[in-house]
Fold:
Amino acid sequence: MVYYSILAIGQNDYMPKNEFEYLFCVLVLLFSNILNTIIFGNIASMASSVMHKSLAYQNMIDETNCTMEDIKLDEIAKREVREFF
Structure:
């Protein structure tokens, strides 16, 4: 009965009264849960992709900085390399 009150408006004006209505409510709730899972899964996937790209860029910059330190570039050349990326 708790799940069906989600579909109610106001003071439980609309509630399933026969088996067909109960079945319909169950199917609507299952479909909405599946739809929510798909939507939130896609949002999480997009956020993960953005974070992965950001992390890859940061790693590239870190490696570039280490390489510039190893070959002892002067500060002007380092700045130009950083501006390139």
